[in-house]
Amino acid sequence: MKIGVIGGGQLGRMLALAGTPLGMQFIFLDPAVDACAAALGAHICADYNDHEHLRQLADQVDLVTFEFENVPAETVAFLSQYVPVFPCAEALRIARDRLNEKTLFQQLQIPVAPFAAVDSQQALDAAVQTIGLPAVLKTRTLGYDGKGQKVLLNSADVDNAFAELGSVPCILETFVHFTGEVSLIAVRARDGEIRAYPLVHNTHEQGILRLSLPSTDHALQSLAEAYVTSVLEHLNYVGVLAFEFFEVDGGLRANEIAPRVHNSGHWTIEGAECSQFENHLRAVTGLPLGSTAKLGESAMINFIGTVPAIEQLAAIADCHPHHYGKAFKLGRKVGHGTIRSQTVQQLTEQLEKLKALV
Q1: Which residues does the chain have with pLDDT short of 70?
Q2: Half-sphere CA count of 165, side-chain side, radius 13 A
Q3: pLDDT 10s digits, 163-210
């Protein structure tokens, strides 16, 4: 089977690594000449709205998926005229726009912080009067890894904030005082079956995920699964979806969803019976879903800007390094390392060694 993937970053690369043993072949459409996934398949170097090359992709594959939610929903809608595309354009339209996303959460009665649409500085001033400070101003689209947002602590931060974010449609959200950040990776098959991985505790620095620790018997696992299930079924979703939450007052408050395989699920490659990448491919191709059960204890650390020497990583017992083949650049995710051990004590010991290298 030939799979078309919109986007050619590390997520596409890892999809191909998971699908190749299943006899799948991959074609990536990405505007970057140095797309790192191109090492694992054919590469159509074109913009996401280039209809001629989108048709070229559709003519060569059995179905299409995507690895990047900043792909225009119109691209998916166009492709779906010629070839099956999973997830669907409506799921992408909701997930790539923070206002649509938060509105859906409200509709499904999933707890969310107070928010307001902001289309001008005047609208921002009015929203601050209603929502109060501290708050976070975010662009509605094209924001990830801490980009496209500003924390507003006082009135001086509010002045000219709309222009600072590019004078584009924004959303203002109450600043959430949380006790932890968690994410749930779930997958829904074509026949509607849903499976979820264990809740993952995440640590961010400057808006970028640094560390993920999958939990065991988390008290909020069932609640998270209920929220994710409501979204998956409402959107008639097919594939992997990540739902990020804040832990607040013993419960969960929705942050955002990602309609794709997700950074906080990278540990599943070595740490679960079936990885998020293989399960995404199983879902979109109509294969039975694989087990989401943990294998021992795991932790994942992102490599930001540079990858430690492979010799040093290989010297750490239980460490599984992943080099994405991307040019090193400040603030860029260029790899990750997963520790998988049999006990929490072993995991802690080896994780400290990996942290020392990073």
Answers
A1: 143-146
A2: 30
A3: 999 999 999 999 999 999 999 999 999 999 999 999 999 999 988 999
* Six token digits for residue 93: 């339209």
Q: Where are the alpha helices (DSSP H) in the chain?
A: 10-19, 51-60, 73-79, 89-95, 98-107, 121-131, 155-158, 161-164, 221-234, 268-271, 276-285, 310-314, 344-357
Domain assignment present for 184: yes
- Same domain? 192 vs 335: yes
| List of residues 6+ apart from 296 with CB closer than 8 A | 271, 340, 341, 342, 343
Kindly state whether residue 31 falls inside one of the protein's structural domains.
yes
Task: Determine the 3-state secondary structure of 121 from DSSP.
Answer: helix
Q: Is 0.90 surpassed by the pTM of this model?
A: yes
Give the burial class of 105: count Cβ atoms within 10 A of its Cβ; 0-12 exposed, 13-18 middle, 19 or more buried.
buried
From residue 278, give the alpha-carbon distance in Å to each of 23, 39, 267, 319.
12, 18, 13, 21
SS3 287: coil
Say whether both 239 and 315 belong to one domain: yes
Instruction: Name the domain boundary from 174, 191, 210.
Output: 174
Upstream peptide bond of 21 is cis (omega within 30 degrees of 0): no
Beta pairing, strands 63-66 & 2-6: parallel
Which tokens is 215 given? 């939990």
294 Cβ contact list (under 8 Å, min separation 6): 198, 214, 216, 271, 272
Q: What is the CA radius of gyration of the chain?
A: 20
